Amino acid sequence: MDTHIKYMKRCIELASKGIGKTYPNPMVGCVIVYNNKIIGEGSHEGYGCNHAEVNAINSVGDMGLLKKSTLYVNLEPCNHYGKTPPCTKLILEKGIKNVIIGSRDPNNLVKGGGIDTLISNGCNVKYGIMKDECDSLNKRFFTFHNHKRPYIILKWAESKDGYISPKKSDRNKGEIFWISNEESKKMSHYFRSQEHSILIGVQTVIDDDPELTTRLVDGNNPTRIVLDPNNRIPSNSKVLSNESETIIFSSTKNLELNVDNDIIIEFELDSILEFLYKRGIQSVIVEGGAYTIQKFINTNKWDCIRIFKSNKNLNEGLVAPKYEIDKLEFRMIGDNKFYEIFKN
Question: Which residues are within 8 A (CB) of 34 and not within 5 positions of it... i.e. 6 or more apart?
Answer without folding.
Answer: 65, 68, 69, 70
